[in-house]
């Protein structure tokens, strides 16, 4: 099943007037893959994700997500994916438990399923003793881990993570990636955007966007060999210099 494509993109473009924020990108993502969608801030990553999750209409090109067309079936896409935005997406004025209950209901889970999922999530996150605390009172790292767990409540085929580790400390970043690995091992495809080039090393394959275009796409090992460098940060720097 690893060879099954769950995302297929061909010449996908998003233009704002004469400016192309995403310029004819093409790629595929396999089932269970951790796919890194990398690039500097402003490279077009978030704009591309918005098209793939069905909240922004492409200007041109083709794209399918879990066999649903981004033009004609955006609502079906939303029902079959999880999404964690760049900014924390849960409700600060609700407790940890209330957020889990609320989003479980939004995802259409039964009360019984919500109770079980809630119990499992709280134990896994180590938050069962603070389930009655307001989310707004939690440290950012805890909020991010809770947000990821909530995005997995309905067992989506793909989870889109937009800059999930931005602003958190190195220890929390490592813990977050352990959660990503566990979800991928259970068959969930992870599509993660980041501008931290060291996080590319954790992905099965990565694409690197520069000024709206995908300028490189391969495994981290192959890209480092191709550019004759020791790190993904150096790959990115070489790409940026070549384009300049």
Automatic annotation (TrEMBL):
ABC transporter domain ranges (all copies): 7-236
Molecular function per GO: ATP binding; ATP hydrolysis activity
Protein name: ABC transporter domain-containing protein
Species this protein is from: Arenibacter certesii
Assigned keywords, A-Z: ATP-binding, Nucleotide-binding
